[in-house]
Amino acid sequence: MRLVLPVLLSSVLVLVTASDWDDHRHDGQESSPNNDMSPCNWKCLLFTLQWPGSFCLSLSKGTGCRIPQSINTWTIHGLWPVHPNSCCDCWHMYPSDVQELEEELTQHWPSLLKSKSNFHFWRDEWKKHGVCAACAEGMNSPFKYFQICLKLQRQLDIQKSLEDGGITPSCQRPYKLAEVKSILNPHLGSRYEIQCITDDQGREVWFQVKTSMSRNLTTSCQYHDDSEEQWSRGPRRSFSHAHPCPPQLPFYYFPINHEQPDQPCN
Predict the structure, then answer these.
(1) How many Å separate Cα 259 from the centre of its chain?
(2) β-strands 44-50, 75-81 pairing
(3) Model confidence over 64-110: pLDDT tens digits?
(4) Cα(226)–Cα(249) distance, integer angstroms
């Protein structure tokens, strides 16, 4: 099933030309969207939302975590091209690039680490993923990339879908993967992954949702060598202990605890 995001379909994304990309390269090497060595060789992206109520549980002990009082919904983790060759470290991002979006980004794409400012988080995501995503014309600047991400979050609005379906955060009630997917399938398509972490009490806890998207931002993108294992892995992330929520085990959807973010239910 392929779902269309109505607001974004008014301008379908297309590849930038090789010359457009070369404007931002510093190594002088040829690059084209059809070249296997190009950072433009990706077909799909993963739009990833994270739940602040369990984010701090995904970190190593002692890592400073925070959840600002204004944050009470799913936040953006990133928009990641799947398996590009590499992104060049050649297209720098500055605060002025996203100044017009800063208020909205602060609310919907905050850093939840005490050691990392919001802009540091945004800049890292641009450097690791946005530079490759910029191969698509609709995302070919920091401003456009972050603007697209904000639009995607508004369009998907998984929190409203979950609430309408009776799925709300709780320390007592676990959920089954099938019941959550029955609610999200009409909104996220056929290819998305619900990721969990295991807390120190051995409970499975809902952490992220990764939605597969094509270049024109339709859902359910399927790329070559698209095995479940390969798809689940996606781009390599620092959260190596995040894993697909097991279908046979119930998992928890913990509430946000602003005062003790690393102990949401203790």
Answers:
(1) 25
(2) antiparallel
(3) 999 999 999 999 999 999 977 678 778 999 999 999 999 999 999 99
(4) 25
